[in-house]
């Protein structure tokens, strides 16, 4: 194996911050004349599980309260969703704990799923041929009573429920700027449409609108645009910075049904501490009467990884070559592909969850239990709790939503997150030692070893260059695939003359350019063929490939929402 | 009810190539059905000489119906064709690809309460009837279409029918007097066939030479323009090079650009990612030049050349010119 | 002047279209959207209304389709139509091109428009130029492939793409005009318009309400019938030449092109 190339001075993407001042650009006072502003009762930015759960719960409570309903006006609840439809940008493994959705909608038992988990296995992949089953299944991976779901599908169902209940779902609309006046969040300004490549106004330019609300909910998901600005501008940052992993997923139609959920650790990730490769795979059987059997398969790796040439998409392709995986997928057909970042900072990275007039829910707040890979029901739960606080406080004509934060910390969401607060960090010591430490934490429910294991921003991790990329399989177009064919499958067809929505420093050292190139699952960043082996590289950026996974925000650039409606149209992710 | 009537579009003293293809196809099918194929032309008699009309016999038409009427408009042709089909108890109306053909065929379908299939790529005879075949689902499948009752209207895809002079000589010309419907006379041609701009519309070009990132720089398009000129075609580009400002957006081919299906698509320095492929995959002949033997384009090209396009393209241009004798 | 815009709900172009493995028919379960070509028709109607050359009293969006088709109408209304009409009836399901054109014509007859605008084709590739079918049933002049509309002394001066270049045609009203996507750049709906769309009047009509004869529509009465999907004939595997002697390579290419009559 060739020598790993470690630069003489540590090079990390954080040394080349993107050209953006998120507080100045994305927080401010309303600018539309007062009579042109749009008034709604509650504005929910993000139509994912947290956003829809919040909308549904609010409308449930409002149904019995005509007085408050009237006070909230013609549009009591508006959901602002940047995807073409609700669900278009939704992606998860996923296995969901049904407790929260049942609490939210006890009378609607027909939420779509792909089978109750009927068996589970965990494997440690030793190398490209062998796998060691971990028996008994380690506690975090036990999923008895949980359901395999497609969040893209589930979200569409929740959206229908929200609409039935009376929510205004405004799709193809972005939350561009947080409206703050006198220290109180007053609503959201939506994004412009019809700008050209240089940012000018085309013939059909339509400016965004100031949407004024008595309460604003940020439920933007893993790379929350307004959330990021709010954390800085309103002083809401948590103890530790947020850190993320990147998950790349495929859905396959297969011949033989897979009747269990499988998780793996180990190969193709490298165990050595210097690589900082933390992650693994999932393989979930998706079975439903009347449908051909399907399998959801994905690979996850932390974005603070050190090797600039680690590509999660290509690791997934490599992973599929393992005989254990081949047995499951062979003879099948890939029907979907997608990617999304996962917040992994856990408890220590939770921000303050409220500000006057505003709350933060779900993935945007980093409510993901990393060892258990659970977040969907936290999103629903937090949306519900947010609705309850908002309802109560609006009745009292107050913008103080601090009781929401207390409610979250007192709930199972808060308790789970606290228990698992240190479980990812030990893996910086490598897989074996890390695994042992985390095991100890799991067994003692977080008490041993306690303390506060700090997170460090992904973009600060110094980079090295290896020959990792030489081991990725050459895509054959039938079983293994290149990035662009996946992007095509997502239905991504962004306008060619749109301005770039990616803020990034384009002249960077090779290590950084390659880190972005390999990291991005959609092929947005490219190192030009004629770029020098040493010395600065002029990065090529292809924003129209972007599937808005959010990885670049973790690793030194910054994603902003492109025009509403752009991006993928996930159906079964 | 038997017999095929083919619409023949004419302009400036010549019959449209796609119409000639349709007549040839009509003749082939009529022969297999044991019936006759006729053609119909509509326009000013000055332009529709006996000589021009009967020349369709060379392509297999038995009779050519000639009707005096407004030129270049669809609805008068609907009236004319409906009359001829009804008076002669014909079974099928056939159109070569082309914009007017779609419009006439659609109107005729309504008039005759007929079944229609559009974008037909081939026609066959089955149990004494015609069955059309058309691509669906982005050309990934072919669907059969059967005509269950009454007249069958067949509208071909552009270039679907090849013209061939297998006819047995001159066709007889029969003049028809058509009582045009009032609404057919409510559109008046003010100016016909205006050419716009120097740019060839790449969607109409029969030969396209397309360039991608592999050209290396904007100037790389100069060589492609020479080659396109030699072949008698136009230049196209991928999204990547249009983004980089090397070529005009009007020439962009692909998922977010134009879709083309020329007789020849020569891709130089194009990797063949699916976003590009969907814009040109129906091209009749695909030739690819790329220095990367692993480029995906080689998986669907008819002829692939692994090599340096900077060396190959100029020499190819010279060789093409020499072969064509220009 | 009353303008009716014919709109259609079609599967989103981004959704991979496939045959449903269990039914053997086109899988229509995916996302649906307003046919992009129809947005150009709506924009054309709005530009006529806002242009001032002629007085437009109302723009009405009309569609024929199942229940979900109302979303296409909401979108049309958010783009500026004043109200909409939805023709929906089980008896219309599976109608062929002729049946569809006939049903739409009856729906339009009940509205008595002065101008009917529609998109040139629908994204699902089902049929092109349905405008011409509708126009024949309505006995109105029609043009397709129109990329420019101006009002000229009560008539419409239209430019349209044809085989030999661009034609300019003067059309008397009432007329049916099918527009191409080059005609304009459709506007984006404002947030206010999107939120207000559901409040605009939407009339639902059944086949009997507009005098549609049952034996002219529906799957059983189709005059043309799709059957039997099959994969297209296998393309012969391509030939690969590795360029070593460029003169030789070029000779081979020219021979290959000549064989296929591409150098005529």
Descriptive report:
The complex is a heterotrimer of chains A (573), B (326) and C (264). Chain A is an alpha+beta fold and 573 residues long. Chain A is built from 15 helices and 26 strands. In chain A, helix 9 (376-395) runs antiparallel to helix 10 (402-410). Chain B is of the alpha/beta class. Chain B folds into two domains: 4-185, Rossmann fold (3-Layer(aba) Sandwich), CATH 3.40.50.620; 207-324, TPP-binding domain (Rossmann fold), CATH 3.40.50. In chain B, the strands form four sheets. A seven-stranded parallel beta sheet of chain B has the order 7-11-6-1-4-5-12. Chain B has a five-stranded parallel beta sheet with strand order 15-14-16-17-18. In chain B, helix 3 (74-88) packs across helix 4 and helix 5 packs parallel to helix 8 (309-324). The mean pLDDT of chain B is 92. Chain C has 264 residues and is of the alpha/beta class. Chain C is built from six helices and 13 strands. The model of chain C has no long low-confidence stretch (mean pLDDT 91). Chains in contact: A-B, A-C, B-C. Chains B and C meet through helix 3, helix 4, strand 7, strand 10 and strand 13 of B and helix 3, helix 4, strand 7, strand 8 and strand 9 of C. Strand 18 (303-306) of chain B pairs parallel with strand 13 (239-242) of chain C.
List how many beta strands of chain B DSSP finds. Answer: 18
- The average pLDDT score of chain A comes to 93
CATH class of the largest domain in chain B: Alpha Beta
C-alpha-based Rg of chain A, rounded: 23 Å
Secondary structural class of chain A = alpha+beta
Count of individual beta strands of chain A: 26
- Span between N and C termini of chain A? 37 Å
Strand percent estimate of chain A: 15-25%
Sequence stretches where pLDDT stays below 50 over 5 or more residues of chain A: none
Strand order of the largest sheet of chain B: 7-11-6-1-4-5-12
Shape of chain A: globular
* Shape type of chain B: elongated
